[in-house]
Design goal:
321 residues, alpha/beta, TIM Barrel, eight-stranded parallel β-sheet, 13 helices, 37% helix, globular, disordered N terminus
């Protein structure tokens, strides 16, 4: 592969083919080919991203500029700064993103706010807070581009929030038109069905609810999430994690089948996320392959546009002040 690189802004500004010729490249795919830390492979996706396509779930870590809080329970991922994420954007050709505060930072959301500012105006954020957060602090987060709060409870030993915090905090952020983002196992989601029916804010379930691809729609969590989605106040994030696929790369057949079911059922309630830099995965996946799953989940370009562009704009307020 040639060492020459051309960024997407230059490619678009200089007229595509002219820019390619000037750089000695023969195709857009070659121009966007890019090795990215915390991502396997270097080829560009086969699927072409629509303008304003949004990666609705990624993290930023920066140990130098934002050291880890003393009480942190999980490690900072190296080589996962804003600079490295720009390489991923260049490779998969997304232009909007949602930065999610990772567990490694606890309730310190400075790294996320900084990333939103650096990606502006094409980024929003999801923060992590405790019930002790003040109204002024919530307003500051809102002004900084945050539009939701996350509860990551799949691993209790490293969790910085608890399930008891969800309902009281959902009442507070509902006034800001924020959502609550839920990262829980499928079994946890199913067991908390009555809770989901009580919270006043919209709900976003991470990573297809961590429903194992082998169980698919037979898992009780699918039924719970489907009921909530049908009420028009819940979203499901299409993304692949180490624990919801047995088949794995390159086809991810089990997760593809589950995602196709969701696309047929409620395309207006789905968003997509890369989960870069894949903090819980020892063997990093190929983000180009993960993005190409959208072509399998939603073969119709109009539906893909809805999931990648229109739905994120509605959920996170892109294009609004």
């Amino acid at each position: 592969m040639r060492a020459t690189r051309i960024d997407r802004r230059t490619f678009l500004k200089e007229g595509g083919l002219v820019a390619l010729a000037a750089a000695g490249l023969t195709s857009a795919e070659e121009a966007y080919a890019q090795a990215v830390p915390n991502s396997a492979g270097s080829a560009a996706p086969t699927l072409k991203a629509s303008p304003n396509a949004c990666d609705c779930h990624h993290h930023i870590y920066d140990a130098v500029r934002f050291p880890q809080p003393p009480q942190a329970t999980s490690p900072i991922v190296p080589n996962a700064r804003v600079e490295e994420y720009w390489l991923l954007q260049r490779r998969i050709q997304t232009s909007r993103s949602v930065v999610v505060t990772p567990t490694a930072y606890g309730t310190d959301n400075r790294v996320t706010l900084d990333a939103i500012a650096r990606f502006a105006p094409n980024a929003r954020g999801v923060a992590v807070v405790h019930p002790t957060v003040t109204d002024d602090e919530l307003k500051g987060l809102h002004d900084g581009g945050v539009r939701g709060i996350r509860f990551s409870l799949t691993t209790p030993a490293t969790a910085v929030t608890t399930i008891d915090m969800i309902e009281p905090l959902s009442k507070r952020v509902a006034a800001l038109a924020w959502h609550i983002q839920i990262n829980m196992t499928a079994d946890q989601i199913a067991a908390a069905e009555t809770l989901w029916n009580r919270v006043p804010s919209p709900i976003v379930f991470d990573h297809i609810g961590h429903v194992p691809g082998s169980a698919g729609v037979r898992h009780p969590a699918y039924t719970v999430m489907r009921r909530l989605v049908d009420k028009g106040r819940t979203w499901v994030k299409l993304s692949v994690t180490y624990d919801n696929t047995t088949d794995g790369p390159p086809g991810y057949a089990d997760v593809v089948a589950l995602g196709q079911t969701w696309v047929k059922a409620a395309p207006e309630r789905l968003v997509w996320g890369s989960n870069w830099p894949h903090p819980n995965e020892e063997k990093k996946p190929d983000d180009a392959l993960l993005f190409d799953l959208m072509a399998k989940w939603a073969p119709d370009e109009t539906t893909r546009h809805r999931i990648l562009v229109e739905n994120p704009a509605a959920l996170y307020g892109f294009g609004q002040r």
